[in-house]
Amino acid sequence: MLNIKTIDDTTINERVYQLNLGPQHPSTHGVLHLLLKLDGEVVVAAEPIVGYSHRGHEKMAENRIWEQFLPNTSRIDYLSGLIYNQGYCMALEKLCGIEVPERAEYIRVITSELNRISSHLLGIMAFVMDIGAFTPFLYGFDDREHVLDLLERVTGSRLTYCYNRFGGVRNDIDQEFCDGTRRFIDRLRGRFKDYHNLITENIIFIKRTREVGIITEETALEFGVTGPSLRGSGVNYDVRKNEPYSVYPEFDFEIPVRKEGDVMARYQVRMAEMEQSMNIIEQALDNLPQGPVRSHVPRFIDPPAGDIYFAFESARGAVGYYIVSDGTRIPYRIKVRTPSFSNLFVLTRILPGNFIADAIATLGSIDVVVPEIDR
Amino acid sequence: MPTEGQKKLLEELKNSLTRALPEGRITSGDYARTGYHLEVRLSDVGMRRTAMVMKDNRFYLETITAVDFPGSFELIYFYSTWHDDICRVIARIQILKDASPYTVSAIYPGAIWLEREIYDFFGIRFLDHPDLRRILNPDNADYFPLLKTFGKTKLTEEIDDILC
Q1: Tell me, what's the pLDDT at B159?
Q2: What is the extent of the structural domain holding B83?
Q3: Fewest beta carbons within 10 Å, which of A236, A249, A318, A342?
Q4: How many structural domains is chain B composed of?
Q5: Cβ distance B128 to B103 under 8 Å?
Q6: What is the pLDDT of residues B50-59, one digit of tens each?
Q7: Could you give the ipTM of this predicted complex?
Q8: Spans of chain B, pLDDT less than 70
Q9: Which of residues 62-91 of B touch A (CB under 8 A)?
Q10: Which of B94, B100, B129, B127 is CA-nearest to residue B113?
Q11: Is residue A28 a part of any domain in this protein?
């Protein structure tokens, strides 16, 4: 943390100037607009301005039947769409009391964890490109391509999936997908050595990320920070462990935690999380039960009147669907709690007092997806 | 079924909430069905006292939302904790359509954006809020999109005819 002397109020207008970072800037990951007040190179105040890609998903939900909202869910966070897909289905299954075959739960976990890997790969590589390393980006996208090919084979799409259905998944996975996934995991494990050489042990990367953009535990509590950004601050909190859903309790995996709370810690948590995701996928493939992948669910579902809050862990943190049903075929209200919304707002607290170059590194390490904030 | 640790935590929490909010109705929720362990029902004040109790117990504010019911809004505060025995507490506050509830942003700074979002979509003005502006909708918008009176399209009516 940098010690700057407080600016005298009488001279503030002469010394402080504003800089608009975005909405079209390569390192803002989408249409995020960051209004920075600078004193020389030092950030005095930061204000994220959001809403450029607001599409009104929550209003759309009130204008269509329950099933029709399913494709919307993967457009909220387009990088971990399958996880949002799964969460929406599980929330409604809980509300309606729909049983899901065990094989379908395993397939959901496998595809969601693959999606988490692809999301982390993009998040990390785009982040290191922001702070000047171009090569890892190309390697990372090469690996991500394999995940997308695998998922395309099963779900039919590469980014905005709509694969989960109420009561299961749309179609079964085949042997070729299982073999391909195992090959991919072996390949990615081999690539981790390269990544650690290229990024983790890179002296420039270390200098740019150590003790930069520190989120303390107290700040995280006040702002509701979740996901890898929270686990980088020494808090062992992951919805998959703390509030288990689906078949996650059956797998043996760890939640990586780092104490430092800086940019480097958040990067290391994401890298370690990919390894844990690979462990989960391997265990799921080993124990994949036989049977149907979709239970018999009526064409139109009629949830009983009532409400439910369903929490799950996306690649960026704790997501929650709060669903209010009035017993009709159209949702009364669907609220989506998105992690990036809270994770981005914390920048107003942690950026002031840091250099502008560190602001770029901090923004990248939080790994926000702007459409998820704007909804 | 709640474990021993969970029961103890819930009992302590219930007691401290009852002390702070004598007028509130505190009931246990059915976690397996609704996703929350405790439910606090309040009439239009008391959100700041609830927030203070929750912060003393190391809960974080997951989100705030509102639902537009005929005749009233329901403000819902979701609190959750990093503790292993996960415990979600929700506070429901019934307010009239023209009421101005107090902000909790002095206790949880993260609520600044959450309350801005509610103002943006429902037109609920929070008292003492430091920065109550539009957040996702355009600054010059003159509508509040999540009100039930807004944007009932022809399409919805057609769906109504077909399905209901």
Answers
A1: 57
A2: 4-163
A3: A249
A4: 1
A5: yes
A6: 888 888 888 8
A7: 0.86
A8: 1-2, 86, 152-164
A9: 62-63, 65, 67-68, 76, 78, 80, 82-84, 86, 88, 90
A10: B129
A11: no
pLDDT tens sequence across A54-92: 888 988 888 888 888 999 998 888 888 899 999 999 999
**B109 touching A (Cβ < 8 Å):** yes
- Host domain of residue A301: 59-374
- Closest residue to A374, CB basis, from B109, B136, B151: B136
* Three-state DSSP state, A146: helix
Residue B65: closest CA among A65, A223, A309, A96: A309
Pair A63, B150: CB distance under 8 Å:
no
- CB within 8 Å of chain B, chain A residues 327-356: 328-330, 332-333, 335, 337, 341-342, 345-346, 349
Quote the CA–CA distance of B93 and B101 in Å, as a whole number: 9
For residue A304, is it within any domain? Answer: yes
Longest dimension (CA), chain A: 74
Residue of A nearest to B76 (CA): A322
> Does A63 sit within 8 Å of B153, measured CB to CB?
yes
Report the alpha-carbon angle A179-A197-A230, nearest 5: 80
Contacts of A298 in chain B (CB under 8 A): none
Structure tokens at A26: 């390569």
Contacting residues of B for A329, CB less than 8 Å apart: 159, 163-164
Cα gap A117→A123, rounded to integer Å: 10
B134 vs A contacts (CB less than 8 Å):
51
Check whether A4 has a pLDDT greater than 50. Answer: no
Q: How far is CA B117 from CA A332, A338, A343, B89, in A?
A: 19, 13, 15, 21
Q: Please, which residues bridge with residue A38 across strands?
A: A17, A43
CB contact (8 A) between residue A65 and residue B163: yes
The 10 Å Cβ neighbour count of residue A216 is: 13
State whether residue B137 sits within 8 Å of chain A by CB: yes
A167: left (phi over 0), alpha (psi -120 to 50) or beta: left
Asked if B18 has any chain A CB less than 8 Å from its own CB, the reply is no
B159 and A64 within 8 Å at the Cβ level: the answer is: yes
Look up residue B22 and give its amino acid.
P
β-pairing verdict for A333-337 and B25-28:
unpaired
In a domain, A161, yes or no: yes
CATH of the domain at A191: 1.10.645.10
Q: Is residue A270 part of a domain?
A: yes
Q: What is the CATH number of the domain that holds B22?
A: 3.30.460.80
Q: What's the Rg (C-alpha) of chain A? A: 21
Strands B38-42 and B89-96: what pairing? Answer: parallel
Q: Which of residues 229-268 of A touch B (CB under 8 A)?
A: 235-237, 242-243
Looking at the structure of chain A, the number of domains it has is 1
